[in-house]
Amino acid sequence: MTSFVLSLSDPDANLEMVGGKGMSLAKLARAGFLVPDGFHVTTSAYRQFVTANGLQEQILTALGTVDTTIPATLEAASRTIGQAFAGATIPLEIARSIREGYDNLSDRQAKRDKQPIAVAVRFSATADDLPGASFAGQQETYLNVRSTESVLAAVQKCWASLWTGRAIAYRLHQGIPPDSVALAVVVQILVPAEAAGILFTANPLSSRRSETVINAAWGLGEAIVGGLVTPDTITVNKDTGGVARRETTEKLLMTVRTESGTEQRPVPDSLKNKAVLNDKQSVELMRYGSQIEELYGTPMDIEWAWTSSRGFSILQARPITTLGEAPLEWKPPRPKAVYMRASVVDLMPDPISPLFATLGISSLTANMDPLSRYLIHAKAFMPQDYYTTINGYAYMCASFSFRGWLWVLFSLLPAFPRILRMAVRFWREEARPRYQTTVAQALEKDPAGMTSTELWQAIQKVMDSAGYYTCTLMFATMGASSGSEGLLTKVYQKMVQRAGDPSATALLMGWNNIAIRAEKSLYDLSGFCREDETLKAHVLNTPSDRLVEQLTGEEIPAGVERAGWQEFHRRFDRHLEEFGHMIFEMDFAKPLPRDHPGPMLEAVKMYLRGEGANPHERQRASEAKRLQTAASALARLKGIRRWAFVKSLNWAQSLAEVREDALADIGLGYPVMRGMLHMLGERLVKAGALQNAGDIFWLEKDEVDKAMAALERGEAPESMLEHVVQRKAFWQKAKAATPPPILPPRKKYMGINTNVWLAESEDSQSGNTLKGAATSPGQVTAPARVLHGPEDFTRMQPGEVLVAGTTTPAWTPLFAMASAVVTDIGGPLSHGSIVAREYGIPAVMGTGVATRRIRDGQMITVDGSAGTVTILAADN
């Protein structure tokens, strides 16, 4: 038997029978939410009404005249259909069912409240309020309907509203066939709302899923829905359960009930500027919204009403169809802990690969304890997440447990003077030789002859050695360098420096470190080319990517002398062998200079053109200045001043001499490790688990463990193609974000301003002037060149400002071209700062947002003395 009316919570109230809105209300009612009582007039009633009155043919005929580009045709068709519906008659059986539904509702209401029944009559289309389309506002709603005949008339008007001009246009735009839709009607008891509004379980403006946004106004909700009033807006944080923001507006109009319907009336003066909901009510409503969101499994748009006698009622709920992709939520893994992007994290400006996050980062954390036992003779009580990732970005945890602080106070700090005294010797005699030995042992093996498990174990051994080596730098060179340079600078400024004397940095420059040696090697290579005219012409006139191809082959390029080319080939190979391991970033998924030799060839071309300074002369000049500055100071110092200067100078110079070499050698094991990983990736491709060998970097360590176990058993590993696709997509999303320098955000930590050692936060950078750390003095105005990695290096032109996430020794060839340097992260002792001072070019580090705010070709002014970068013009 055909059902023309169903109770509101009827289990048969599905989409086909009661439409989207009705189905949603039925679902809410069955789940126990405070939904006003009512009933459904089903789509069967609509279809029977259309059939009995011969309306379908009239509908299709009218729609045949519609041209969606001409609004008048939409309105003409709507009027024609509306007139046909108005002249039709509701079949007796349907009318009887609606009367019974209303009478039953009236009886229940009368017994409960002893008041005349007032209902809301709302449309509910079969294509209404679904995840892919929202038909809010496309059909009519009738409020404060008070009699049986009025309900019948309202139902008939609702049916006709399926064919309003805007409803027709919307369905045509959505591609919904006109003969596929039908309309149900929901009849509900009207809540005599003192306040009403809309709740979004996700922020519709920012798309943040962690925020609930509430619009609230006095009276019935139609004033908000119809845009007649600017409602209060309350933002509630779901995580904390507290009100984050509120905007209380002046509310001038409110929708109220009358004897014959509703009307707009002025808001009483006492309520105009009063907040509609207090914090407690807002949080209560947020919790209802969260429960509804959990029920539906998606962010929801919810209409609500409030009365002092009943509290909150839910009038309808539908998925939010206009919500953008959720932005990244920057939440600390442990709510009470503090996480920073500092120290070795400076070497990881981008989101790191899943394999490095689960193998490399864990190796860093694990090696802190054996290093502590070796240097301090005590177990390290570091946080388990001392190094961790948040949205793919590396962070360092700065929150220690009680035992951890005891270790810092009574083990680490007392041992620090001894560690500093032995720092350089420890690096030279223990840390570096140990790493070199592990790498040499790995190179002796034939990867092709190893089982997959043996290959994986060898990779982990090299990574463990690299992790140990990197941890030693935090004690032996990086941390000690910071303290020693700071001490020397203070001693020099307070006890030594006179007007006209060089700055303290002059005492720490001019070392023949690995970065300088690499630059000298390229300069010398250009000098060799200059002696052979055919070779010089070929190098200058051949694109660098083509030169790379030729240098990997055996053929002699046409027009080039064989002997000259072969010697050039040999010298370039030797350069790659000696310097090709210097990392661009710490993540081993990123290529090495030996994988991207194009920028080195660009540096050779620059020197061949007579551009750039001679690095031999520049280094000798810096060395002479260092020696002269020290000698001049010592000549006029006596007593305690001389003693303090000599002590601080010797300490700082011993560390400055080796710091860049120590940093550059982090990548000693990367060539062999990357080679083994690619071979392992090829085996997983052959087994069907991956599509490309390089996709192994997008796996996590435990996934590789399982794959190796499967291969060991002679089984096919589980396919990880989908994981790789998803993680690559997330990496791109994370790469576009700006990671906060500290979480939770704060200006001070342990009483110290965080901008002393951390990059600026995105929120602090407004306008056209970016702030950062002033790390190399001087001022330059020039076009910006934003480089994200070695794949971009060949775009760098002499005289441009190098703008990057960070720089490492592998970036040094670009400094010879740059007029200034700007980075997202880093500080006074970062590689970029030190090399910029060596080159005498301005540098501003730690802007936080330079690579995102500055575009290629924009004219910018870099003030390395003030620590500012000013964007002057749009792209050239």
Structure description:
- Helices cover 46% and strands 15% of the residues.
- It contains 27 helices and 27 strands.
- The strands form 6 sheets. Strands 20-27-26-22-23-24-25-21 form an 8-stranded mixed β-sheet, with helices on one face. The chain has a 6-stranded antiparallel β-sheet with strand order 9-8-7-6-12-13.
- The chain is elongated and about 110 Å long.
- It starts with a strand and ends in a 5-residue tail after the last strand.
List keywords for this structure.
alpha+beta; Dna Ligase, domain 1; D-amino Acid Aminotransferase, Chain A, domain 1; 4 domains
What gyration radius follows from the Cα positions, in whole Å? 36 Å
Helices, by number, come to 27
Mean of residue pLDDT values:
87
Quick one: how many beta strands?
Answer: 27
Main beta sheet? 8 strands, mixed
Short description:
By secondary structure, the chain is of the alpha+beta class.
